[in-house]
Predict the 3D structure of the following.
Amino acid sequence: MRRREISGHLIFILLMSSLFLLNIPLLNDHLEGLLTDIRFRMRNLIYPPEVPEDIVIVAVDEESLKRYGRWPWPRQLQARLLEEVLRTGPRAVGIDIIYGEPESPLSDRRLGEVLSHYRDRAVLALGCEVQQGKTFRGTVPEVLSKSTVKMVKEYSLLRAPDAYRCLLPPEDILDSLIFGHVYSMPDRDGKRRWEYLYIRYGEELIPSFSLQVARVASGEPPDSIRVTGGWGVEVAGRFIPTDPYGRLLINYIGKEGTFPYIPAHRVLEGEVPLEALKGKVVLIGVTALTLYDMVITPFSANMPGVEKNATVVSNILSGGLMKEAPRLFNVIFIILSGLTGMIIRPTGARRTLLTLLGISTTVLTVNLFAFCVLNWRLNLLYPMGTVILQGGGMIVYRYLLEERRQRQIRRIFSRYVSPKIVQRLIESPDAVKLGGVRQEVTVLFSDLKGFTTLSEKLSPEEVVSLLNEYFKEMSEVIFHHDGTLDKFVGDEIMAFWGAPIIQPEHPEMAVRCAIDMIKRLKLLQKRFHTEGKPKLEAGIGINTGEVVVGNIGSEDKKMDYTVIGDHVNLASRIQDLTRRYQSDILLSEFTYNRLSKEFLTKLTEMAEVTEVGMVKVRGRDNPINLYSIRIP
């Protein structure tokens, strides 16, 4: 091998080792995260883990809602459910329900009385809000301080998220038991791969809900949790290594339904024998799909959040922790993979591909052994990337770049925008930034009013048929107005204007589209009436502002072109207010102020436009001015 070839191989090895040590989030978190998902699935095929039998989920499922009414249930009913569970003698009970607001003094007092009798065995979920740049500077309430970490080493190395607000329960419940936070941040692709074992609240550290449940199940006192900044957490004589942010990589056992489930209605109706819960760790939570307490995991797109928490409890209690391999081991593995890849020679495509396949298989086998047997997550992205680069993958990529980019644009955007927009993107591919940019757009949220109640009266087939017909009509309107159809969430539609191509008049385009959506819905109502179908009514919220827009996901699995940011959340909050103000369409002041005088003149001729006034919107400190549009 010539000296120049050796130098090239060494450059690849040095490059990949440097990238690993630089810890670039897009690569180390996102791409390596996707490879982790693949390894989880492969592990469950070749070396499936055991399902713990001592952890049970009491689920408020669809059948329970059908029997006892929509959620949230009255707290006296919830108190009865908790009492039935606790009287069976479980080792620990985690209540994955947030009581952020009072219901009534009687109901809250009843719930608090039940919990106070079992305060040594029960842990309550605590909702905490985290936003970059915002911190809590007050004094942590004494009742919450009982739940915080008392022993902290290397405090200066802590890089955990700062909560600026915690949703404490009413006073009658507050003094009843121990709390654990349920703050969770998904990765870039929306999957929950990490558990924050603690977060900061002022000068205190609040353990996670799962960590507290595991502690109670181990019979340890509240002050037994010890945190070492940048290193890990110790509880029940077991050390749990974490990353610098206090995160544990969740070792998922399988898809939803892996843990034993007991419907809440069976507990309430006395159908559950005592031995089913006695001495076990019980988590109580909501699992009904219509309540949207779901998370995306490596195995599932709709795992109930309570089962994610049960998984973390199992990881801690069983010792089945997925550990990050030491950085030195990762660097050695990258170097060894690169040195092995140096045997690849450009002696024909077939031989090169066979050699590359053999080396890649060896790298993957070693990595899977560490993952499945040792519970070590050894980095796979950079060793495999080194081998592929050395095999000439980048040459093939460059050769196919232009054609591949066109296919990518067509594949990604054909679901979101009209064919006319797709063709413009293909003709000018530089117009779209897939990696994520800050850009001003106008966001539209549309939601059916009262559809949750309506869906309870219909069969699942009727619900799906009704939604499909409604979404088809609304999608046509959005595409007609050159909008980007972002997603359907339940009965909600999200669309935006201003990306992926520049649309200077995006606020007006969004308002025109919203008006036509309401008009199309009125026509649909007439047809549904003649067909004997229920009447659908929608409310639309529109907001304009700067957001992060880009393509999020994996090129070979799933990618979503979407917008994220505060102004997206504001549009959703505004849509929620259409019910309160009996409005077809609500505009924020940021959208209304961008409308031209000519457009406003035409708007007032075709619809009733009124100024609602300054409104306090949930999630924002300052009120904003809203404008209502009603279509005759």
